[in-house]
Amino acid sequence: MTSGTGIFFDGNSSARQDVTVELQATTLVVRSREGEQLAQWPYGELDQAESPDQILRLSRRGSLARLEIRDHAFATAIDEMALTIDHTGTVQNRLRTKVAVLLVVAVASIGAMALFALPALATRLTPLMPFAIERKLGQAVDAQLRNSLRSRAANTPLECGEAENAKAGRAALSLLIGRLEAAASLPVPLRAGVLRRAEANAIALPGGQIYVFEGLIAKAETPDELAGVIAHEIGHVARRDGVKSVLETAGLSFLFGMVFGDFVGGGAIVVAAKTVLQSSYSRDAETASDAYGVALMNMIGGNAEALGALLARIDDLHGKGASLLRDHPETATRVVAIRSLAKPGSGRPLLDSAQWTALKNICVEH
Amino acid sequence: MSLYEAVAAVANPAPAPGKVQFLGQDGIYWRLLSRGALLLILTLGIYRFWLATDVRRFLWGNTGIAGDHLEYTGTATEILIGFLIAIAILLPINIMLFLAALDLGLIGQLSGAIAFGLLALLGQFAIYRARRYRLSRTVFRSVRFYQTGSASVFALYALMWWTLTALTLGLVYPWMQKSLERFKMRHTHYGNLTGHFEASALALFLRGFPLWLFSVGPQFGGIAAAIYAIDWPPLAEAVNAGGSGLAERIEATNPGYVNAIIFLIGAAAWSAVAAAAFYPAFQGMILRWWISGIRFGDLTVISHLRIGHLYRAYFRFLLYGLVFATGCAIAGGILLGVIDAVKVRFNLTEADELIGAASVMIGYMILMLGYSTIYQATVKLTLWRVGMESAEISGIAVLDHVKAGGRPASSVGEGLADALNVGGF
Asked: What pLDDT band is residue B280 in, cutting at 50, 70 and 90?
């Protein structure tokens, strides 16, 4: 039977006791110098506690009592008796490697969830969001948008069509939107306006507000082209993409920011993951809205392919970027998809030439 | 002395009474941190719970008081669970704050302030609870430390003090530290031994005041000079006129305007440089003052910390940082060259933007994480080491007969602190 010396703390007080330790067949016995038995620990219940290198610190599982062995040879003898003691740290290292591998796998699987499950979840949750919240969200976005766009033109109103001479243009716009809205049967009433901005763009806010930019009207050659874009924006309203995008953004911020990327330098991961994933969600939403817009144009007998023609014309002005970072799909792909869905229209433009001219001049002030 | 006794004396060196020693080796700590940094990247940060646990085990386990070593008994799984629970608590709060921000009325206007106040309060709450967790996982001679006291009371108390400190531009900082430390230590127990904190805030104030005067003082000079140099009524007119060209109009009516701006920028630059230069001294001063205030029953501590150690640690940080940055620049240059060659070879022109974005992101991450690792292995480790080794304990005999008490505390506080980014060690 091997024995040696150690220092024992019994877990009830901080008293330091010099002890002899006997290694018996299945247990380790701690005796005071006077020979009194202080503890008897089965080898199977021994744990190694953290300590400096030259000290082996033992505990019995679940207890705070500690036995410290400072004699290297005796420590090795105990290591050989008890399987759970890992004096060299090999088991610990192996366990840590396992943890690391498992974590990487877990992160990869959650990342995949962010790509597929998060938008699916947002799609399911969106219909449950009350319209009152959507409208409030829309108002908040509207206020922000107007603030950021206003700065440039301080003396002309941001919104076109308020002047007396723009009345006809406004009427034409209402007519066009009225026809689309009637066919769409939306859960919220539409409100549409034209903003004095040179960009060829249109946007849909949460809650049914649509803005067409002056630059887009200038680029459109036929009323059906403009109607195609508006139908696309109505698609965003119908599918409540604004709310869905808020939910997706919130989910992403939760995942990347709170759970992931919370370390020094991790901000880069957060930005990258958000950019790539958000662009991917947005591309999906745009594709779906294209399909919706084309279907709507088909329904009212307009020229559904006109949207594709306008997109192609605008796209000539833009450069190409990395596909992973773009929030819209490739225009060429969109045009092909639009053509494949479009049915032949009635052949008659949605506005007559007088109405179209009035609409084209909606931002002209006299 | 028999041979047996001689061997025992070498194997169990007599505890140096009243001394704290730190046995941790730099090399092991570097390895621990570098491996941790790599795994942080690979796991997008989830490894932080394991890394924090490893770091604490290393620091605690290598710290010996009167010959016996501290032990950290916390586990990574435990704080991961605490973090998950904390997130479940924070999620509804965040959603409420988001909805409040949507409100167009008074609530929406105030939502920013409400969120700030609420999160500041929660942060202090978490700091106190995290301390409770860490203390209850600290074991010395088979007896655990623990903390009592209400975290909510502490949070209110701390928020009040921080507000006061901000309003006085830091002048009441010593009194805040003393007050909060007293609260914490009064509720800190080692078995049946209860702690308290005894230090003079005035002494800290008198020591710190010259530093404050050097770094914050010039701001007053800058502002005063700016106020003097600007001709106020025309400035108000120029601003009120609206429209573009504001800067030109101000300059036309206010010849002193440029000087005022120069004063302000100069004062701010001075303050930044002075703050950076004095920061190690400030840190050392606080640490020494804090350690010297610790009491457990009849046990008292006095710290002989030398500020020079800290400057040396910061110097090493800057030096290693420079070497690291140079290494990164060379490695990055080579890597980009290789990528460029591959791009030309396989005609991948469209990938340009993507490669650009990815290299900025990865470069930023490696640099930041590298610097953080170097900082921890130099400055943080030095703070711990010299802080511990500078301590001289009197009345250490009370540590020989402490009765055990306290229970392990929940790890939710630690999780909250992590989720709110207010964690300590």
From this structure: very high
Q: Where does chain A have alpha helices with state H? A: 72-81, 90-125, 131-150, 167-184, 214-219, 223-238, 241-255, 267-299, 306-315, 331-341, 353-360
Identify the CA nearest to A331 among candidates A343, A344, A318, A349.
Answer: A318
B100 at A interface, C-beta within 8 A: no
pLDDT in tens, A247-268: 898 888 888 877 887 788 888 8
pLDDT tens string A283-332: 999 999 999 999 999 999 989 899 998 988 887 655 555 566 677 888 88
* Of residues A52, A104, A265, nearest to B61 (C-beta): A52
Same domain, A177 and A307: yes
The interface predicted TM-score of the complex, written ipTM, equals 0.81
Expressed as residue numbers, the domain containing A35 is: 2-88
Band (B205; pLDDT cuts 50, 70, 90): very high
Per CB-CB distance under 8 Å, the chain B contacts of A263 are: 40, 45, 48, 369, 372
Whether residue B242 and residue A57 make contact (CB cut-off 8 A), yes or no, is no
Does one domain contain both A80 and A131?
Answer: no
Average pLDDT over residues A115-124: 88
Exposed e or buried b per residue across B411-424, where buried means at least 16 C-beta atoms within 10 angstroms of its C-beta: bbbbbbbbbbebbe
| The predicted structure's pLDDT at residue A241 | 92
Say which DSSP state B18 is in.
Answer: T
Q: Are A165 and A364 in contact (CB under 8 A)?
A: yes
Specify whether A172 is located in the same domain as A303: yes
Look at residues B404, B9, B408 and name the one whose alpha carbon lies nearest to residue A66.
B404
For chain B positions 279-338, those within 8 Å of chain A (CB to CB) are none
A263, A270, A324, A325: best to mutate for the B interface, most B CBs within 10 A: A263
Contact (Cβ atoms closer than 8 angstroms) between residue B141 and residue B147 = no
Are residue A145 and residue A276 in the same domain, yes or no? yes
Q: Is residue B147 within 8 Å of residue B133, measured between CB atoms?
A: no
Residues in A closer than 8 angstroms to B68, CB to CB, are 7, 16
B44 touches chain A (CB under 8 A): yes
Q: Please say which residue of A37, A66, A88 terminates a domain.
A: A88
DSSP B404: P
Indicate yes or no: CB of B45 within 8 angstroms of CB of A262: yes
Whether the per-residue pLDDT at B276 is higher than 60: the answer is yes
Smallest Cβ–Cβ distance between B191 and the set A14, A254, A258 belongs to A14
- Does B60 lie at the interface with A, CB-CB under 8 angstroms? yes
Residue A263 in contact with residue B369, Cβ under 8 Å? Answer: yes
In this complex, is the C-beta atom of B8 within 8 Å of any C-beta atom belonging to chain A? yes
Is there a contact between B12 and A107 if contact means CB atoms under 8 Å apart?
A: no
Q: How much is the pLDDT for B155?
A: 95
Residues in chain A with CB shorter than 8 Å from the CB of B77 are: none
Domain stops at, among A46, A65, A88: A88
Mutation for A interface: B47, B59, B142, most A CBs within 10 A: B142
For residue A159, the distance in angstroms to the closest alpha carbon of chain B comes to: 19
pLDDT of residue B1: 45
Count the domains in chain A.
2
Q: Which residues of A touch B47 (CB under 8 A)?
A: 100, 103
**Orientation angle between helical segments B232-240 and B246-253, nearest 10 degrees:** 160
Q: What is the mean pLDDT of residues A260-286?
A: 86
pTM surpassing 0.90? no
